[in-house]
Amino acid sequence: MAEITLKNLGHSYSTAPMSEEDYALKPVDLVWEDGKTYSLLGPSGCGKTTMLNIISGLLHPSEGQLLFDGQDVTQKSTSERNIAQVFQFPVIYTTKSVRRNLSFPLECREWEPKKIANRVAEVSELLELDDILDMPARRLSADQKQLISLGRGLVRDDVSAVLLDEPLTVIDPQMKFSLRRKLREINRRTGTTMILVTHDQSEAMSFADEVVVMKDGRVQQSGRPEQLFERPQNTFVGYFIGSPPINLFNVDVQGDSLACPALDLSGIPRGQLEPGALQIGIRPEHLSFSEPTEKGAIATVEACENLGIEQIVSLRAQTGEAFKVKSRLRRKIGVGSQLAVSVAEKDVLVFQDGRLA
Amino acid sequence: MGRTYNIIKYLCLLAWATFVVFPFLWALSTSFKDANAVTSGARYIPWLEFEPSVEGWTSLFASGSRGINIVTPFMNSASVTLLASIVSLGLGTLAAYGLSRFSYKAGFIKNSDITFFFISQRIMPPIVLAIPFFLMLKEIQALDTIFGLVIVYVALLLPIAVWVMTDFFASIPKELDEMAMIDGCTPIGAFFRVVLPNSTAGLVVAGMFCLIFGWNDFFFAFILTFTETQLLPVAIVSLNSSVTPWWSLSAFALISVTPLALIAIVVERFMSRGSLAGAFR
User: Fold this and answer.
1) Are A171 and A278 members of one domain?
2) How crowded is residue A190: how many other Cβ atoms within 10 Å of its Cβ?
């Protein structure tokens, strides 16, 4: 187990990167603390897998350093780093039995047969693989295979970290939930650092202590799930985290403060802002509506989605801006009807040129 | 409709099968003829059209002036083919693994160019290689020896092994090697402990091709040997003198085909077990 530090670490697949565009992973400083669970979240092709492969040593970074517990491992081979990695598609040794699959990493480390047998028994109990230990591995279902991939990582009791590269993609939803819980449980019991790569925000949020959001090879923000939700550092994070995404409104500058005509807000503190494109962002969960009165902003209902316990109402402000409100399901809302919309001032986030001001 | 289709289908298959099997049947029938039966027109069916004789077969194992020595050429052929196939398969598999997993670069030469270089050895007509090979073997005094033939056959079989195995390794997902390395293998360990056990089907196919091409080669065996080291194909052809003993020659040819036929049957069993389907993911 180890603390993993990325020091100005970047990677470009081209031999002579000319501009930032050439980097699959733009140079980044990041610390993965020992024993925590992390999610690496971002759209496809944002550099998540590149970062993971650099940590496991399958890829050598074109610049920067990688430290395990302060030790520079940038040039070390994969086997020396003692990392466990589970790929998107289960990789199993088809010619071996389940038992031999699980014991293989220990055989590579030349453990004694008796110690291997004990350890394999422990791990197979943890993953509930006892019944199929002697089956040929190629006969298993996709999620059993994925469990074995994971088991091969866990069987070493001294792994620096377990890296999971979208391992739940091939698993059916019911199993996904229990596997995710199992991963959390393993993390609690063994204290192994786990890094889960995913593009599914609910998976990321529910799994990890801390979520790292990436886009275009750049780390956008890292923090606890609620931090990402409450204070997204930029509009991309606001958009990517949360469903439906954050609502963005145009604002007018009125001296030292801002006003939002769409929501009839004024006097929003402007702070020390440079000139630039200004917007305010409000989570759909933070907006509320009521029957229209004399005062306040009025918006027209364009659609209403019923999610059982919640509803998502699509509205159009009088300025023509569209936005969404998520609330507890209380009553039927007719399309075309008018509603008054309000928001608490603390929930208004000001973005300048796309960044949280 | 279905019935007519089936009849036509089986007629076509029957015609083709006859076309393929007929030369063998004819050789088999000829091997039991005597001189009279061979020279007096076409006859096919023993007992009905001619009186069978086992002279063709006995002559192969008889001693003395009437005997034809089949054991020595057979053993020569077997040694040369086996040795050359083993060496080619070993070197070829390693080369193919390297070419499929690592990127090499020397100036403008890349992996695909190296693979093509191997294959290009088979593009040239063998006659182009005959004189250089002859002179080189002469230089190292390996003409008319098993050693010399093995060297030449390795040069001929290696491209086949590289070709088949490069293709096969390309079909094995790279994640398998990566996984093995994550599990603690060195790159070489990953090859021997994980990739190779998954490659039996490819090895069998490549090995089969090596054996067939090695066993059947006449040209180089003919040019690079004289009297000491005679291989089977050359020995068969050398029976063809002023009075050709067609019956012995047929028996000889059938014997020389037998090992390949046996291999084909074994390999066919092996492949129909489904081992060829690289069952990953």
Assistant:
1) no
2) 16
